[in-house]
Specification:
The protein has about 650 residues and is α/β, with parallel strands linked by helices. It is built from 20 helices and 30 strands. The chain is about 30% helix and about 20% strand. It has a seven-stranded mixed beta sheet, sandwiched between helices. A five-stranded parallel beta sheet has the order 7-6-8-11-12, with helices on both faces. Bound molecules: adenosine-5'-monophosphate-propyl ester (PRX).
């Protein structure tokens, strides 16, 4: 948390324009404060009102919050609904012919699908899944490219009450195997391959490899969407083409009404141990938050063209592609490709072409696009934009200002949304027509979200200083448990340190004198590389699983585009390599990590030592490793080190 001082000196304030305020769903500070007060006065009544106003219930709920078994909170739990019904059927009478998704493929091919067409597509998909015997509560892994079919797959699962678990297409066979096994999935929905930046990347072969590794006996079916048309092997009995599965299915499918608490999905994310956590979300609370934040944060209007550039493999793609935009009846852009192909103007070109009004992306994408062509937006008409957003990591003020001026033409508010896989949707963000923005700050919590910054004992810190970010009351969209590991859920998020009372976000934060929140980064062993969350222990486990490696420690180093880069310190079983040999081994190990976890986890740099810096009790001193990785002088006391001479060795780069 060393940069608290510097961020607190950022005192430029950007007020939303009068024009924006006038039309905003939450218009002005007083409207924001009124909602906060409503929540303060009667927390449950506040959420109950919103849940009644925003969700379509098959069976209305009477009970709002059940706190009888903390921290396993339940919301609206005697109510029944269906998420897919809330996203699709609700629009059939009012706007059947409105375009739901404008899909642009990697090669520029555009496909539009209306709400009515999407509804029928989802129904056929759902009937297809039912014909395979998939039942409510079954887990279905989705390993698909960005496509209308991926969104339809998630909606189809929701329609029949199956719990989906989407795995990002960039994850390796091994990561997929872990997730399939942990979730006990009965089916995998995939594609032959995906296209990214003009290159074909196989998917189905990766699923085959994952299943061949063992531990996936639960999988009885694989449904394959033909995307690339490449030659792949299908296994009789188990594998079916999506087109064959749906061709004779009815295009209507009665939704399965589920309890409000029914697990809509599990999404794996990294934690501070080697094993990823299956974050389990509910149906009603989660969907409510997706809808509210579409309206509050994104100021959604029926005329908007919304574009969230995330992949459906991450939580952002769940809440702000697969559920939120559909539930409010938006027209949204779904993009298969990458921002730099064929040229680094792809985002600006698409905004221009489709008249995007609300654009939501990651700071890492903004920084890399500044690097590759800061002037490129000027070649396009971006005047349709009215609101910009960022997610996933802190945005540095320079990138913020560029985004604000060059992309948003100084006219669009920027919502810097702080949230997590576990929180379901935005928790701290400027409301664009209410809260003045400060570049780099996610500003204020949403109404009804009781955020605070506390010290190690759980006491609130004074404004102007830093500490640990906590949430003091349960909220409807929060994580319900870690799939199959309720103890880990409790320990991780409701630790004894705070008497199990507060949700621990795992981030450090500070509040400035105006009460604005500034996120200072993770306080656990989790890295944020290009907005992707990676556990240092996961990467360490991958490294030590290689025959050559005796020991490994992984730390993050600040990176001007990726936010953080992965740096690994490795001790080999044999002698410490030097020269050419060290380069070769470093490459072997990088590829190994890529194969074990996925390309996003490959260390940027690997350094070799005869040992790692350890205390006499054998504990690796990561603080020292972080300093070495950054190339800083070691000013810390190293007298407790067992082997101080190792530090010089580790300063050498390969
Ligand atoms: O450290 C915070 C950072 O991303 C973490 C959550 O990662 P994940 O679960 O993968 O979800 C990412 C998309 C919601 C947080 O603990 N983070 C997320 N948004 C921001 C952020 N850090 C600073 N500012 C943000 N706006």
């Amino acid at each position: 948390m060393s940069n608290i001082e510097s961020v607190l000196h950022e005192n430029r304030v950007f007020e939303p324009s009068a024009e924006f305020v006038k039309q905003a769903n939450i218009s002005g500070m007083s409207a924001y404060k009124a909602l906060c007060e409503e929540a303060d006065q009667d927390y449950e009544a506040f959420w109950a009102r919103l849940a009644r106003d925003n969700l379509l219930w098959h069976k209305p709920f009477d009970k709002t919050l059940d706190e009888s078994n903390p921290p396993f909170f339940k919301w609206f739990h005697d109510g029944e609904l269906n998420a897919s019904y809330n996203c699709l059927d609700r629009h059939l009478n009012t706007q059947p012919n409105k375009v739901a998704i404008i899909f642009e493929a990697d090669d520029g091919t555009v496909t539009r699908i209306t709400y009515k067409q999407l509804y029928h597509r989802v129904c056929q998909f759902a009937n297809g899944l039912k014909s395979l015997g998939i039942k409510p509560g079954d887990r279905v892994v989705i390993y698909m490219p960005m496509s209308i079919e991926a969104v339809a797959a998630m909606q189809a699962c929701a329609r029949i009450g199956a719990t989906h678990s989407v795995v990002f297409g960039g994850f390796s066979a091994k990561s997929l195997q872990d997730r399939i096994g942990d979730a006990g999935a009965v089916a995998v929905l995939t594609a032959d391959g995906q296209m990214r930046g003009g290159k074909e990347i196989p998917l189905k072969p990766v699923v085959d490899e994952a299943i061949a590794m063992g531990g996936c006996d639960s999988v009885k079916h694989m449904v394959v969407y033909k995307r690339t048309g490449s030659n792949i092997k299908m296994q009789d009995e188990r594998d079916v083409w999506l087109s064959d599965l749906v061709q004779n299915q009815l295009d209507v499918c009665e939704p399965v009404w589920v309890n409000a608490e029914h697990p809509l999905f599990i999404l794996y994310t990294s934690g501070s141990t080697g094993k990823p956590k299956g974050v389990q979300h509910s149906t009603a609370g989660y969907l409510l938050h997706a809808i509210l934040t579409m309206k509050w944060t994104f100021d959604f209007k029926g005329s908007d063209v919304f574009w969230c550039t995330a992949d459906v493999g991450w939580v952002t793609g769940h809440t702000y592609i697969a559920y939120g935009p559909l539930a409010v009846g938006a027209t949204q852009v779904v993009f298969e490709g990458v921002p730099t192909y064929p040229k680094p103007d792809r985002f600006w070109k698409l905004i221009n072409e489709f008249g995007v009004t609300v654009f939501y992306t990651a700071p890492t994408a903004i920084r890399s696009l500044i690097k590759l062509g800061a002037d490129l937006p000027k070649n396009y008409d971006l005047s349709s934009l009215r609101l910009l957003g960022t997610v996933g990591e802190p945005i540095n003020p320079e990138a913020w200002i560029w985004y604000y001026e060059t992309v948003g033409g100084k006219r669009c508010p920027i919502v810097d949304t702080w949230w997590q896989t576990e929180t379901g949707g935005h928790l701290i963000t400027p409301l664009p027509g209410a809260i003045p923005m400060k570049p780099g700050s996610c500003t204020m919590p949403l109404p009804g979200i009781m955020c605070d910054v506390v010290d190690e004992t759980g006491e609130s810190v004074e404004k102007g200083s830093g500490g640990i970010l906590v949430i003091k009351k349960p909220w409807p969209a929060m994580i319900r448990t870690i799939w199959g590991d309720p103890e880990r859920f409790k320990k991780t998020y409701y630790p004894e340190d705070f008497q199990g009372k507060y949700y621990l976000a795992g981030d450090g934060a500070s509040r400035d004198l105006d009460g604005y929140f500034w996120i200072m980064g993770r306080i656990d062993d989790v890295l944020n590389v290009s907005g992707h969350r990676l556990g240092t222990m996961e990467i360490e486990s991958a490294l030590v699983a290689h025959d050559l490696v005796a020991e490994a420690a992984v730390v993050g180093r600040p990176h001007d585009v990726k936010g953080e880069a992965v740096i690994a310190f490795v001790v080999l079983k044999g002698d410490r390599p030097t020269g050419e040999e060290s380069k070769e081994i470093a490459k072997t190990l990088r590829d190994w990590v890529g194969k074990d976890i996925g390309a996003i986890a490959k260390p940027e740099e690997i350094r070799f030592g005869d040992n790692l810096p350890k205390t006499r009790s054998g504990k690796i001193m990561r603080r020292l490793l972080r300093a070495i990785a950054k190339g800083e002088e070691i000013t810390q006391d190293v007298s407790t080190l067992e082997n101080p001479q190792i530090l010089d060795q580790l300063k050498e780069t390969v």
